[in-house]
Amino acid sequence: MTAALIVMSGTLLALLTVHLLVARYDRKRAEGNFDVGARARPGVAVLGVAVGDVPDAESLAALREDLDARMGGLPWSRAFVRRNRDAAPLTIQSLFFAFNSQGEAGAFCHRLAAVVPDCTPVVASSADLVTIDARAVEIATLAQRGIAPYAGRGGTRVVYVPSPPRTIVVKEPTQKIVYVPGPAKTVVEPPLPPKIVYVPAPALPAAPAAAQAMTAQAPLKLQPGIPVADMHYPEERVWLSTTYRYGDPRLTDIVGAGDVMMGSIATGLNPALRPGVDVATIVGADLAGIFRRADVAFVNLEGPLYDGSQGSPKDCGQCFAFHGPTFYAGILRSLGVDVVSLANNHSGDYGEAGRDSTMAALRSNGIVYGGLDRDDARAGEMLLPSGKRVAFIAFAPNNGTLNINDLDRAAQLVRDLKKTHDLVMVSFHGGGEGWTYVHVNKGTETYIGENRGNVTAFAHTVIDAGADIVIGQGPHVPRAVEVYRGHLIAYSLGNFWTYNGVQTYAVSGMGPVLEAWVTPEGTIAGFTIHSTRQAGLGVPHLDPLDEAARYMYYLTRSDFPATAAVVDGHRAVASASGSHDGS
Q1: Residue 251: its pLDDT value, please?
Q2: Class assignment of domain 225-308+322-573?
Q3: Do β-strands 252-261 and 513-518 pair in parallel, antiparallel, or remain unpaired?
Q4: Is residue 347 a contact partner of residue 371, using CB atoms and an 8 Å limit?
Q5: What integer pLDDT is reported at residue 5 of this predicted model?
Q6: Helix axes 407-420, 455-465, angle to 10 degrees
Q7: What is residue 369's predicted lDDT score, i.e. its pLDDT?
Q8: Does the pLDDT value for residue 516 go beyond 80?
Q9: How high is the pLDDT of residue 505?
Q10: 395, 386 in Cβ contact below 8 A?
Q11: Would you state the pLDDT for residue 346?
């Protein structure tokens, strides 16, 4: 008994010590000792504010242009580039605005709060800084700009003052649509057709040389210092299940990608895309194979498929109105796509005529859809060859779509689907857009005055209601993944195929393709992220350096450290041979 008491006392003492150390650390951080636990580096310490978190210089330049356009009058004389080398295997870069006092740093973050949700006060070493024009930062450089080295403890103390709460005004529609389920009745439904198996189209004559030249891809933009050579950074599979092994036929293979807008009649079409073309000849057989082998392959379709003459009801002095030809549904079928989301800010670009045309084109190609708030388009379903019934439903903050901000209704719709289906897939189009929104905000996100949803609350709500996997898009950049209660959430898969009308360079050109294996119980057995890049005119190809995946893992470590700890403990090289088959 005495020995047991000694062990128990020692355990309690250890727990108390850890608690006090954590509390002391949090207190010092709150008091402004940002250098607590900081790794020592050569050079002098500089107090500042970090903005953005991107893996290449092009994205950083685009971030600067975006900030200038939306803010103006920023203190560029005090701006540097901070290179976070601790984020290996990628070098993550941010804009770093140096300040000398608590008031300056706090005021700057207050000012940026409306457009940059992740304004972060940090103490950086001058060895990690370069000037905007890439020159090394010395003490003399700082002095010339009126910047004093940070004194740390006993010197300048910096207290970060959080941004004041913002008032979000949401305009209610003049007529609120309330979904009232009809009276119960017995309906004998015909069996669903089996999943359509892709049959290659007959070979067509080669496209003219001019058309082939237009689809040629510019060299992929790689990390600084990485040689431009034919190399392959091995993909990694994260395997979480101890019950199921990779390849188990009881698992459901789900492939998901982000935004797809392969060309708009108003802004230009890719001449290589013709009716009946085999998409593998354009994106590569290895990338097409990932979609074709899946049990369920998903993308977000940005913009209607519409050949009609009706114009767009949108006033697009400062916006885009997309519409691709209806034969693009056959292009999606050729890629291997089984289901698409219509819940986004472009599905209604050509009104109800455009939506009707889109749904008809998808139906004629055996593609399931969901996400519109109308009886024929809220949710779609598939019957897999295994006999599993799969439901798909999608949400967005846009007119005519299922509302991402109505969590109660979202939960009820998912619960209803789970009663009659083996697996429920949920998609959402939400969160802010662009380089300043690469991190998942744990609260409500607004962009240009629009409520884009609280994406973490939404994802957790639908999983609690019975969703098995949640796949997001909308920010036009990759975001983190999270494992929540055994289910996988991908917060943004960025731009997958966005030809001539959506930015496709730098981070916006990264198109991670998620491949996830879901157990019969609905939990995640394992997943991998296939990296693609858009270059040239915006046609995706697999990226041999796997940068999108590495970037998403970095963001996961930052935004969801508990998930990152699990993921990092289960990552394994998926293919030492250099193939992209995910096996």
Answers
A1: 98
A2: alpha beta
A3: antiparallel
A4: yes
A5: 58
A6: 30
A7: 94
A8: yes
A9: 67
A10: no
A11: 66
Q: Report the C-alpha gap between 117 and 127 in whole angstroms.
A: 27
Which amino acid, residue 218? A
HSE-CB for 63 with a 13 A CA cutoff = 26
Among 55, 471, 541, 566, CA closest to 279: 541
Instruction: Give residue 212's pLDDT.
Output: 42
Structure-token pair, residue 191: 């069996």
pLDDT of amino acid 353:
79
* pLDDT one-digit tens code per residue, 4-61: 556 556 555 544 543 454 444 344 434 444 443 344 567 888 999 988 888 888 888 8
Quickly tell me which residue has 């708009």 as its tokens: 264
Tell whether the torsion through CA atoms of 241, 245, 246 and 247 is positive or negative.
negative
Distance, in Å, from the CA atom of 494 to the CA atom of 509, rounded to the nearest integer, reads 8
From 295, 303, 304, 299, select the one nearest 279 (Cα to Cα). 299
Pick the closest to residue 253 from 289, 279, 302 (CA basis).
Answer: 289
Give the whole-angstrom CA distance, residue 408 versus residue 179: 12
DSSP 87-152: GTTS-EEEEEEE-SSHHHHHHHHHHHTTT-TT-EEEEEEGGGEEETTSPBP-HHHHHHTT-PPP--
Distance CA 482, CA 215 (A): 36
Contacts of 276 (CB under 8 A, 6+ apart): 201, 202, 204, 330
Residue carrying the six token digits 């992929």: 220
| Domains 45-144 and 225-308+322-573 fall in the same CATH topology | no
Q: What is the pLDDT of residue 315?
A: 59
Within 10 angstroms of residue 219's Cβ, the number of other Cβ atoms is 8
Following DSSP, what letter does each residue of 186-247 receive, concatenated? Answer: ---PPPPPBPPPP-PPPP-PPPPHHHHHHTPPPPPP--TT---SS--PPPEEEE--SS--TT
DSSP secondary structure letter of residue 422: S
Euclidean distance between CA atoms 337 and 195, whole angstroms: 11
pLDDT at position 409: 96
Under DSSP, the state recorded for 295 is S
Pairing state between β 389-395 and 79-84:
unpaired
Secondary-structure breakdown of the chain: helix, strand, coil percentages, each rounded to the nearest 5: 30, 25, 50
Domain-by-domain residue ranges, the chain?
A: 45-144, 225-308+322-573
| Apex 331 CA angle, 339 and 347, nearest 5 | 55
Nearest to 403 by CA among 395, 412, 411: 395
Q: How far apart are alpha carbons 159 and 434 in whole angstroms? A: 29
Strand pairing report for 423-429 and 469-473? parallel
Q: What is the pLDDT of residues 401-455, one digit of tens each?
A: 999 999 999 999 999 999 999 999 999 999 888 888 899 988 888 777 787 889 9
Q: What is the DSSP letter of 403?
A: B
Stretch among 326-330, 391-395, 460-464 having the lowest mean pLDDT: 326-330
Can you state the angle between helices 351-364 and 328-335, rounded to 10 degrees?
40
Domain 45-144 bears CATH identifier 3.30.70: yes
